[in-house]
Each structure stands twice: as C-alpha cells, then as structure tokens.
Amino acid sequence: MKKKLLWLLPLAAILLTACGTSSGETDESGTAASAPNEPKETTIYLVRHGKTWFNTQNQVQGYSDSLLIEEGEKQAQLVGKGMKDIEFTAAYSSDLGRQRNTAKLILEQNQHDIPQITENIGFREKNFGSFEGLSNDDMNIAVAKALNLDYPEDSDELWDFLKEQLTEEELANKVAEVDPTQTAETYNEMHQRVSKVMPEVMKEVDAQGGGNVLIVSSGGIIPIILESIAPGEYQGEKIANCSVTTLTYKDGKYTIDSIGDTSYVDQN
C-alpha cells in the first residue's frame, strides 16, 4: 500500500504543475501572464510642425511647402529632448518637408532605436487652391467680403474674428467657394482624406504590437484628425507650432489626453 502511494505522489505533482501552466495565471518568473487576447494600447503623440518661413511672412501654407526657420528647428529639438526617453515603435508625417524635417529633428534626440518615418499624404495640410503662397489676409478678406461682414483690418484680429463667426467646416467650405480656381479642398474632401489615414496607421501599429507613435502634421488638419476619431472633442483649442496633442488608442477607441500642449517648447 505504501509503495502505491509513493508512486502516486510524483504523478499528482506533475498534474498540478500542468494545471498551473495551462491556466495562464503565471509565467516562468512567477509574474502574472497577460491574457492572450488582451487589447493592445497605443499612445499617439500628434505634433504640429515647427515654425516655417511662410509662418513668419503671413503666407498661406497648405500643400505648398516652406522651410523650417531656425526657431522652428529649435522647437522640434526641444520637443525631441522632452520625449527622448519615449520609445517610439512607429513615426509618421506627410510628404511635406516641414513635417518630415520636424519628425526627423524630434527623433534625432531620442535615446532608443529610431523608427523609419513613414510618409502618408493623409497628414498633409489643407489644400487652399489658388490662395497658396499668397497673404493670409487676401484669403481671409475674400471670405469676409463674401459673407458681407464688417471685419477688422489687423491680420491676427481678422483671423480670430472669422474663427468666431464660422465653424471649421463653414470656414473651409467658404474658402473653397471663394477660390477663383475652385481647386481648394472643401471640408468634406478634407474629412474624407483624413478619415482614412488613422485606420491605416492603427492597423500597421497594431500589427507591430502597439506602443508609442509619433505623428507630425499641420495646424489646419490636426483638428480634422481629432474630429474624425473623436467627434465633438475638439473645441477650438489653439494648435501652435510644435504643440503636442496626446491620444490613447485601445480596443478600437480613442481617448484624447491633451490638445495643443506647448510645455515642451515653453521650457526654453
């Protein structure tokens, strides 16, 4: 009888070990193991490009491009230094040089392996048609006149005035309406372009296991990106040069953590 019991003890130990392993509760180190189908989490750092020459000259800057000025390069470097300890699994910009170079300068400060920058035209700024390269005042005055508004003369006051009078959608459509060549994007055209880009990006990032993602875009298109993934969350917050908007993506849903954060560049 004793011999039979001694033979059963090792068998019971084997069965107990097998049960513990198959339950998925612990790994070899004794740490609780993750459920195999647990949703992956991604943190997205959505950055506006640094200041450009067109920005300093009050020129319309959409699909047309303009070089980063020294201040814009420094802004990107400051953002990079502030994010140097973040390990990015992916990085994106459009094919516009001001966005691509901002992303490059940010990543150059990073302490981890640097991902290749993937270009996607969905992150391009708005297309302002024949207003591209002209004074912002020319475009804004054309909009104000078409609306028969008594508008202020100062450039900044005029822009703020129009933003108070019109929604993002109304302003974009009015610019397209008054464009003499009728080549400026309507809001619907921009929204269709932008609504495709985030699902494309998240599909690629999910395939890599989630993580942290850097995206560099432009001040006019970032609000439309936000509206496409989290309708109603953007409330007109300023998107300054090299400001950072932070999002969390998990289980097919986006959470906006901050919009237009300038704390990285304000440290200067």
From TrEMBL:
Secretion signal, residue range per the UniProt entry: 1-23
Active-site feature positions: H49 (tele-phosphohistidine intermediate), E125 (proton donor/acceptor)
InterPro entries in alphabetical order: His_Pase_superF_clade-1, His_PPase_superfam, Phosphoglycerate_Mutase
UniProt-recorded name of the protein: Phosphoglycerate mutase
GO biological process, any: regulation of pentose-phosphate shunt
Residues annotated for substrate binding in this entry: R48, H49, G50, K51, T52, W53, F54, N55, R98
GO molecular function: fructose-2,6-bisphosphate 2-phosphatase activity
GO CC terms of this entry: cytosol
Gene3D superfamilies, per the entry: Phosphoglycerate mutase-like
Keyword Endoplasmic reticulum belongs to the record: no
Record keywords: Hydrolase, Signal
